[in-house]
Design goal:
- It is a single chain.
- A hairpin with a 2-residue loop joins strand 13 and strand 14.
- 45% of the residues are buried.
- The strands form 11 sheets. Strands 10, 12, 13, 14, 15, 16, 17 and 18 form an 8-stranded mixed beta sheet that branches. The chain has a 7-stranded mixed beta sheet with strand order 3-2-1-4-5-9-6, with helices on both faces. Strands 21, 23, 25, 27, 28 and 31 form a 6-stranded mixed beta sheet that branches.
- 21% of the residues lie in helices and 28% in strands.
- The protein has 16 helices and 43 strands.
- It is globular, with a radius of gyration of 29 Å.
- The longest helix has 19 residues.
- It has 5 domains: 245 residues, Rossmann fold (3-Layer(aba) Sandwich); 57 residues, no CATH class; 127 residues, no CATH class; 116 residues, Sandwich (Immunoglobulin-like), CATH 2.60.40.10; 200 residues, Rossmann fold, CATH 3.40.50.880.
- By secondary structure, the protein is an alpha/beta fold.
- InterPro entries: Class_I_gatase-like, GlcNAc_PI_deacetylase-related, LmbE-like_dom_sf.
C-alpha cells in the first residue's frame, strides 16, 4: 500500500545491514492522530529502526486549516505543503505516511464540533480500511478522547481510533471491504501520553520505556533523528533541537491486552509467528552474520535463497511484505539505480510522453538483466557500472491533479474513491513498469516519470512530471470587489500548454445575477512560439445584492482550469488545477484610506486584498523603517505574527509609536503568546492569551454601538459579520488596560463573552489598533463586512 514516494529510498552499506536485521522482525505499529506534526517523531524513529517494526503514521487530515509561517498559502494549498513535509519527515525517521479524507477546517474546541463537520462514519470507514490493510499489532494514539486533548480534532482522533480498533475486527463492520481485505484485531490500543497540553494521564498505571538510544548504523540517536524529522514541518515553524540520552515515553492502556513490560507484550514479532517461518529466520540470521559491508553484492545469493523460502509461506500479509523488503535489498546490494526521465516538466492531457529509462548496476560482480519495459520484451544483460538507456512513449489520459482535489470538497471532507484510501499522493502517477532480474529473482519496479534539471544552488533536482489541461486560465485575483454601478477592468491570461498552433473561442460565464461582462466572447489564436495570450475584460456590478457571483471561462461549454504551482526548496514542487474562477463580491463601502505601509509577518494576502479596495499598499522592510518613511502613509499595518518572527521589529516600535502620536494609524494583527520579539509587549496594557472564537458564525455583540470604529466611515451592523470563514479570531488579548476601547465581544457556544478581539486607543493625534480578528482569512476571501470594518480601523477618526 505504500505510495511511490515512500519506496526504494537509497541505501548505503550500513543501511543495508539495518534493513537485513529488519527482515527478521514481523511486527507492526500504527500511530494515530489528527494533523501533520501531531506525531511523536522520536517514537516513530525508535520503533522503525531500534525495534525494527513496520511503523506507520495515520494523520486524519492534511493540516489545511493551520497557519503558514513560510508563505501565503492557506486551505488546500497549505495542505499540499504539509503533506509533502510529512513525507520528508518520514524519509528521515523511516516511518510510512497515510491519510484519511477528513478536511482540516480549522481549530475546533470540542469533538462534538469536529464531528459536525467531519463525516464520522466515512472517516471511520477509511481508518478501518487502513488498519485492515496494514494489520498493526499495536495502535498508538497521540491524544486522549476528552478535553485534555485540547483541539477538538485531537479528541476526535482518539475517539475514532477506539472505534476503529473494534470495527476493524468486526466482519459486520464495513463488510464491502472484505472482498479485498480481512478483519483484523490489533493486540492493543494505547495512548502515548505527554507532559504538554495537560495530557500526563494516570502515571502509576503507565507503561514506560526508554527510547533515547543511539543507533550506530545510522550515526544518530533517536532524539537527533526526531529533531531532523520534526524540523521538516517548516510551514509551522517547528524547527527542533536534537536531544541525547535517556528519554522515557509513557503509555496508558486503552483497549485490548494490557502491556506491562513492553509495547509488544504477548506479541510474537519473530518468524515463529508464521507456520514454516523458522527456516526463513535461520537464513536471515546467516545473512546478517556473513554480510560484508564492503561487498554488498556478495549477499545477493543468500537474499535470493531467502526470497524463495518466503514464497513457500501461506501468510499472505507477511509474505507480501517481506518479499518487497528482500527485493529492495537485492536492488540495494546490486547498487541498482533506475530513473525514468522526461525532457520537460509538464505535458498535456492525452499527449504522448516520450521518456528515457536509465538503468545501471553499480556494484561489481553482479549479474542483472532487464526483462521487460512496459510489457516490451527486452532480455538484455546489464554491463557493470555502465548506463543502459531505453527510449519509450507513455500515453496519459488524465492530468495529475492530487486525487483528493479532483472533486469539490465540503467543510469537513474530501471526496475520495476507495481505491485511493490512505495514500499520501496519487498512486497512479505517470510511471514506467520495469521488470529486472537480479540473482535469478524477477523484481517488478514502478518508476514514476521525473523531470531532472540542474539548479545552480541545489544541484540535481528531480520533480514528478505534470500532466496539465491543454488550455488553462491564469487569474491575477481570486476575488473582485465592486460597488453598485462600479466598473472594473481585469486582465486574464490564457495558456496553451500544448504549445501547438490553435484557435480557440473563449466565453466568460457568470454564475449569479447582478453583473455584466464585456466582451462576451473572444477568439484567441495561439502560436507554438507564443503559448500565452492576455485579454482585458470590463466587469460592472449592477446591483447591491449581498450574495457573490462566480466568473469562469469556458471553451465549448467546458470551464477552464487554472494552474497553481507551489515551490519551496524543502519539498518537491506541487502543482494542482483548481477551477479557474473569480469570486465577484458586491460591496457598499466608503474608503478614505489612500496609502498603507505594510510590514509583512508570517505571510498573508492582506496587501493584495487592500489593493483590491483601491489602496496603494507598499511593503516595508523592518530595517528601512524611519519617521520620514512612515509619514508618507495614512496607516501602517503589521502582518500576522510579525512580533513573533521579526527579530528587528522591537527596536522599531518606538518609531512606529511616535508615528501614531503625530497623527498616524497603526494596526497590529494577531500574534501568539510565545516568542514575542518585544519582551515588554505586555507594557502596552494587555497580554496575549490562547483564547479564540472558532465558530465563524458566532454572534458578535457591540459593546458600544456608538464607537467610531463601528460608525466611520462605514456604518457597521451585525450583517457585516455574515459569511465569515473558518473562525472569528484567535489569540485574543486579555488583562486589557482601561484606556483601550473594546467595541466588540463574542464567544463560542457554551462559553463566556470575550472582548479581546479588537482594542483601540487614541494616542496623541493618532490611533493604535490591536486586533485578533482573523482578517488574514477574511479579506483575501472577499468577505464584504470584514473589508468594511478593516477600512474603518485604518481610517483616521474624526
Amino acid at each position: 500500500m505504500q505510495s511511490l514516494a515512500q519506496t526504494n529510498r537509497p541505501m548505503h552499506a550500513a543501511d543495508i545491514q539495518l534493513q537485513m536485521e529488519k527482515l527478521n522482525t514481523l511486527g507492526s505499529v500504527l500511530y494515530f492522530a489528527a494533523h501533520p506534526d501531531d506525531e511523536n517523531t522520536k517514537l516513530i524513529a525508535y520503533l522503525a529502526s531500534e525495534r525494527k517494526v513496520r511503523t506507520a503514521y495515520l494523520s486524519l487530515t492534511r493540516g489545511d486549516g493551520g497557519q503558514n509561517l513560510i508563505g501565503t498559502e492557506q486551505g488546500v494549498e497549505l495542505g499540499l505543503i504539509r503533506t509533502q513535509e510529512l513525507l520528508q519527515a518520514r524519509k528521515i525517521d523511516r516511518g510510512e505516511q497515510y491519510f484519511t479524507s477528513a478536511y482540516d477546517f480549522g481549530f475546533s474546541k470540542t469533538h462534538a464540533e469536529t464531528f459536525r463537520f467531519w463525516n464520522e462514519h466515512e472517516v471511520l470507514r477509511e481508518a478501518v480500511w487502513i488498519i485492515r490493510k496494514l494489520q498493526p499489532d499495536v495502535i498508538i494514539t497521540r491524544f486522549p478522547p476528552d478535553e485534555r486533548g485540547g483541539h477538538g480534532h485531537h479528541q476526535a482522533s482518539a475517539m475514532l481510533a477506539r472505534k476503529a480498533f473494534d470495527a476493524a475486527a468486526d466482519p459486520n463492520a464495513f463488510p464491502e471491504q472484505l472482498v479485498e481485505l480481512q478483519p483484523w484485531q490489533a493486540k492493543r490500543l494505547i495512548w502515548n501520553t505527554a507532559n504538554f497540553m495537560r495530557m500526563q494521564g494516570d502515571s502509576p498505571n503507565q507503561l514506560k520505556i526508554d527510547i533515547g538510544q543511539f543507533n550506530p548504523l545510522l550515526g544518530h540517536s533517536y532524539g537527533e533523528l526526531s529533531a531532523l524529522s520534526r524540523s521538516q514541518h517548516k510551514s509551522q515553524g517547528f524547527g527542533s533541537a536534537a536531544t541525547n540520552g535517556q528519554t522515557i515515553e509513557s503509555f496508558e492502556h486503552v483497549a485490548g491486552a494490557i502491556a506491562k513490560q513492553d509495547l509488544f507484550d504477548q506479541i510474537d514479532i519473530s518468524w515463529t509467528r508464521i507456520p514454516g517461518g523458522r527456516p526463513v529466520q535461520q537464513a536471515i540470521d546467516r545473512l546478517v552474520e556473513t554480510y560484508n559491508p564492503t561487498n554488498p553484492a556478495g549477499a545477493i545469493p543468500q537474499l535470493a535463497q531467502i526470497w524463495h523460502l518466503i514464497q513457500k509461506l501461506d501468510n499472505t500479509y507477511w509474505k507480501e511484505r517481506k518479499t518487497k523488503e528482500v527485493e529492495s535489498l537485492l536492488l540495494a546490494c546490486a547498487g541498482m539505480k533506475v530513473e525514468a526521465l522526461v525532457e520537460k516538466p509538464y505535458y498535456t492531457q492525452g499527449e504522448s510522453i516520450p521518456f528515457r529509462a536509465e538503468i545501471i548496476v553499480r556494484n561489481p560482480n553482479t549479474q542483472a538483466c532487464i526483462s521487460y519495459i512496459n510489457g516490451e520484451n527486452i532480455q538484455q544483460t546489464l554491463v557493470g557500472n555502465s548506463v543502459t538507456k531505453f527510449n519509450g512513449q507513455l500515453a496519459q489520459q488524465t492530468y495529475t491533479q492530487p486525487y483528493w482535489l479532483a472533486k469539490p470538497h465540503t467543510l469537513g471532507k474530501f471526496e475520495v474513491l476507495p481505491a485511493n484510501f490512505g495514500f499520501p499522493m496519487n498512486p497512479d502517477l505517470p510511471a514506467v513498469n520495469i521488470l529486472l532480474e537480479i540473482g535469478g529473482i524477477e523484481i517488478p519496479l514502478v518508476e514514476p516519470l521525473q523531470y531532472k534539471y540542474l539548479d545552480p544552488v541545489r544541484g540535481d533536482v528531480h520533480e514528478y512530471v505534470q500532466v496539465r489541461p491543454a488550455i488553462a486560465v491564469g487569474l491575477d485575483q481570486p476575488v473582485l470587489l465592486a460597488q453598485k454601478g462600479e466598473r472594473k477592468k481585469i486582465t486574464v491570461t490564457f495558456l496553451n500548454q500544448a504549445t501547438l498552433d490553435s484557435q480557440k473561442t473563449i466565453e466568460p460565464q457568470i454564475e449569479g445575477a447582478g453583473w455584466t461582462i464585456s466582451p462576451a466572447q473572444i477568439k484567441l489564436n495561439f502560436k507554438a512560439d507564443q503559448p500565452t495570450l492576455t485579454q482585458e475584460f470590463d466587469l460592472t456590478n449592477t446591483s447591491l445584492q449581498p450574495e457573490p457571483s462566480l466568473l469562469s471561462f469556458s471553451i465549448d461549454g467546458k470551464p477552464l482550469k487554472a494552474v497553481h504551482e507551489i515551490a519551496y526548496t524543502h519539498i518537491p514542487t506541487q502543482t494542482w488545477f483548481p477551477e479557474g474562477m473569480i469570486r465577484l463580491q458586491p460591496i457598499d463601502i466608503i474608503n478614505p484610506v489612500k496609502t498603507v505601509g505594510y510590514i509583512m509577518g508570517a505571510g498573508d494576502r492582506v496587501p493584495e486584498a487592500l489593493r483590491e479596495l483601491g489602496i496603494q499598499v507598499d511593503l516595508i522592510k523592518t530595517p528601512d523603517i524611519t519617521p520620514t518613511l512612515l509619514s508618507k502613509y495614512d496607516a501602517i499595518v503589521l502582518g500576522v505574527r510579525v512580533m513573533n518572527i521579526d527579530k528587528n521589529i522591537a527596536q522599531k516600535m518606538p518609531i512606529i509609536d511616535e508615528y501614531v502620536k503625530n497623527g498616524g494609524v497603526t494596526l497590529i494583527q494577531y500574534n501568539v503568546n510565545s516568542n514575542l520579539a518585544e519582551a515588554d509587549f505586555a507594557s502596552r496594557g494587555f497580554t496575549i492569551s490562547r483564547a479564540r472564537v472558532t465558530e465563524e458564525d458566532a454572534e458578535v455583540r457591540f459593546n458600544d454601538p456608538k464607537d467610531p470604529a463601528l460608525n466611520f466611515p462605514n456604518k457597521i451592523t451585525k450583517k457585516d459579520f455574515d459569511h465569515w470563514i473558518q473562525e472569528r479570531g484567535l489569540y485574543f488579548a486579555e488583562k486589557i488596560a482601561p484606556r483601550y476601547r473594546t467595541p466588540l465581544s463574542m464567544n463560542d457556544s457554551n462559553e463566556a463573552p470575550h472582548s479581546g478581539s479588537l482594542l483601540i486607543e487614541r494616542q496623541g493625534k493618532g490611533k493604535f489598533v490591536y486586533t485578533s480578528l482573523s482578517f488574514f482569512r477574511q479579506l483575501p476571501a472577499g468577505v464584504a463586512g470584514a473589508n468594511r470594518l478593516f477600512v474603518n480601523l485604518l481610517a483616521k477618526e474624526q
